[in-house]
Specification:
The two termini are about 30 Å apart. Helix 3 packs across helix 5. About 30% of the residues lie in helices and about 30% in strands. It is built from 12 helices and 15 strands. It is an alpha+beta fold and about 475 residues long.
Length: about 475
């Protein structure tokens, strides 16, 4: 049981520094905020985020992102707009007619729009790019829409390996609102407010978040440039209760312990590659524990004491593409409940409060690490409240400090065979403070000889998205 708790704690620490998601998040909050400004609307059954969006629904969204919904309805009702399609409902008819009139969408034939056909992630990315003012065939090729959108700060649809859902559509739309228009005049949501399509008062909670987010994004990216070297300190308190078996003995116990640790993390993201080196030393009940971790050539290498092994990570190569562009090394907006800033002397301190979508990221990340270590024998459920990231930016736009505050409640049904099984409940409060030593080209990593690292026989970590939506990599 001690080994399990040690692995759990290590997994949480690694997750705090580098979150790798294995499946989807539910972006209920993004859908609710989009609904408040009239961009995303549900039905009597709610937002139906687990449903596949249709081409007709995507067409409606695109017209709204152009700020032309009322114009389209008025023109259609006046007979000024028509369309030749027989499969379009009256609800979607004004939108489809407006898109056809403006050369923004075609049918699947002369008389069908394919209204009920599924809308793919790629197709919706093209729609979003058009709303930002880009033209396929001129600014980007249809086949390259995902990569092009990624460089603008959108989610990477290439990571949506399963069915594209309305959940994903809401997240992509929300992120697009913070993206610059092609002409650089402003960002999408602000343009919709200026045109009168969206009420500024209704949009203020989102615009406040976007303004702070964009300021942090600009400052942090100018200094980091995809590379960071930081020392970190960690303090944590863990209370847990166990009912089950360990080593063939029955357990029914509760305990609380303090943990403290320190280490260094170096990350380099350049030229279609990502590398990482982390050292970690921490104490738990006066017992010192050490671990080292490296990411190189699409694999994770871990050394702790006399154990040294290699863990393959399928899909890590694809994840490089999400980390390389200049706007993807931060938490993306749909994961954030709020973004605020305040002055602290000559510095600016940004606080990012997390929402439930990020809770799912943590849940999946730790589940993956534990699954690789323990053979997927733990069913884990997380809840988080009051967790946040804080960034301190100096007046020269240099990132000085990044801090993570995690309040985590965990309930696990564990079945690792006759030796380890039962139910564990854990409450963990953790503060991680990272002082930045170097960024950009000043960051260097020296790797050890990995020839003696044995391949891990446990299940490999899958970092590419599941059937329910996008995943991403985040550096804190």
């Amino acid at each position: 049981m001690r080994r399990f708790l040690t692995i759990l704690f290590t997994a949480l620490l690694l997750t705090a520094a580098l979150c790798i998601s294995a499946s989807a998040s539910s972006f209920d909050r993004a859908a609710e905020e989009l609904s408040a400004i009239g961009i995303f609307k549900g039905t009597a059954s709610g937002f139906q985020l687990d449903q596949v969006p249709t081409r007709a629904q995507a067409a409606i969204m695109l017209v709204r992102l152009y700020g032309a919904e009322e114009e389209a309805k008025a023109a259609y009702d006046a007979g000024e707009l028509t369309h030749p399609f027989t499969d379009v409902s009256e609800t979607a008819a004004p939108h489809v007619a407006w898109l056809v009139e403006n050369g923004l969408s075609n049918g699947t034939s002369a008389t069908t729009f394919g209204a009920s056909n599924p809308c793919t992630a790629q197709a919706y990315t093209v729609f979003l790019l058009r709303a930002l003012g880009y033209k396929d065939g001129t600014d980007f090729a249809f086949a390259d829409a995902q990569a092009f959108g990624l460089n603008l700060g959108l989610f990477s649809p290439s990571m949506i390996t399963g069915t594209f859902l309305r959940d994903d559509l809401a997240a992509l739309t929300y992120q697009a609102l913070a993206c610059d228009l092609k002409d650089g005049s402003t960002y999408l949501l602000d343009s919709l407010i200026q045109s009168g399509a969206i009420d500024p008062n209704a949009a203020k909670p989102i615009t406040d978040k976007i303004e702070a987010y964009r300021a942090l994004e600009t400052a942090s990216m100018e200094s980091v440039d995809g590379c960071i070297d930081a020392d970190f300190d960690i303090k944590a308190n863990v209370s847990y209760s166990i009912a089950g078996q360990s080593g063939g003995q029955n357990l029914n116990m509760s305990e609380s312990m303090d943990m403290a640790g320190s280490g260094n993390a170096k990350v380099i993201i350049k030229d279609d590659d990502m590398q990482m080196a982390m050292t970690l030393n921490f104490t738990m009940e006066d017992e010192m524990m050490e671990a080292e971790l490296w990411l190189k050539d699409g694999a994770m290498y871990i050394r702790s004491g006399e154990e040294a092994y290699k863990q393959e990570i399928p899909g890590l190569a694809e994840l490089y593409q999400t980390a390389i562009p200049n706007k993807t090394n931060m938490l993306l907006l749909p994961f954030l409940k709020s973004v605020t800033s305040k002055a602290s002397g000559t510095d600016t301190v940004y606080t990012l409060e997390l929402n439930d979508a990020f809770t799912n990221i943590i849940n999946d990340s730790v589940s993956d690490i534990l699954g690789a270590e323990l053979g997927n024998g733990a069913d884990i459920h997380f809840s988080m409240d009051g967790s946040a990231f804080t960034y301190t930016i100096a007046n020269n736009s240099q990132l000085k400090n990044a801090a993570v505050k995690l309040n985590i409640d965990v309930e696990m049904d564990m079945n690792l065979g006759a030796e380890e099984q039962g139910t564990i409940k854990i409450s963990m409060k953790m503060d991680m403070d990272m002082n930045v030593k170097a960024t950009g080209q000043d960051v260097k990593i020296t790797f050890p000889d990995f020839s003696g690292f044995k391949a891990n026989e446990a299940t490999s970590i899958d970092v590419i998205g599941g059937a329910d939506g996008p995943t991403a990599i985040f550096l804190t």
